[in-house]
Amino acid sequence: MGYHDLFFKQTFSIREHAVDFVQHTLPSEVIRGIDYATFALEKGSHVDATLAEHFSDTVYSCQFYGTPLKIALLFEHKSSPDINLPFQLHRYMSNLWENSIKQKEPRMPMIPVVLYHGKAAWNPGTLRSRFKDLPDSVKSFVPDFEYVFVDLSAYSNEFIKKSIFSLASLRIALLIMKNIYDQEELTRHLVQFLELGCSFFKEEQGLKFLESVINYILQVTEIETDMLVKSITCITEKGGELAMTTAERLREEGLQKGIRKGIQKGYNMMVSLVRNAEKKGLSEEIIAQIANLDVASVRKILNNETIDIPLHLLMDGDDQ
User: What sequence ranges are listed for the domain Transposase (putative) YhgA-like (predicted)?
Assistant: First the structure.
């Protein structure tokens, strides 16, 4: 799972965020009919391997005037428009109902809500609109459906901060997502965004949410750790400490990942060296001297057996 997807799921797996989001994005007649006491997060995903290239999902079920209903919050991955979105949504909806059939569950109507955070404004249109010059006599044979499309580029930062959504944490999350591709803009306004959560960050739940924000920024942008820590500390001292420990953890994880990658690279290079030398007619003894291995190890490599090679022989100079 990518970092954008992870932050989306962390944000919208919080029921209060999802409720706040749909209450400000769905049509008013739908908003009025939902029984929010029944609004519940569902397990699993209906995104298959093909759709995973395009978006991720978080699904909620609820009652709509007594009728079971699913609301699928879908996060569009791309930073630029994709004209095939309606076809991808059609596939997604089919997956959801197909999964219901397999699990012997009743099929439920579903409202797709797509969140897009790219720079360019986008109006993807309906599935039927993807067919140009479609004769009227053929239109009824082309499946069509409506969906809610939320384009964050259509909202100014000020509008998100002050005029839409009730929860400060949701506003912060959407502001970060909206500006994540513009590092200069994000850096300039970060303190203002985080100030929205001053009170929330005093709670344990608020700090947990802030940690996901910190992790997202550090993983996706090149904002300096010191700058991030300074920005957060002026809002919440505990948050600044959290930013520092998160950065240290990510740095250590990156180091360990780099070491593992270096070891694998060194192992592959050693195997290639031994096999290429054997192809050139060198004896096992000479190969062992060149590779700084014993003859038994050379023999195992040539026989496609896995061996333990001393760590110092596997690491590149830059990795040691």
Answer: 4-196
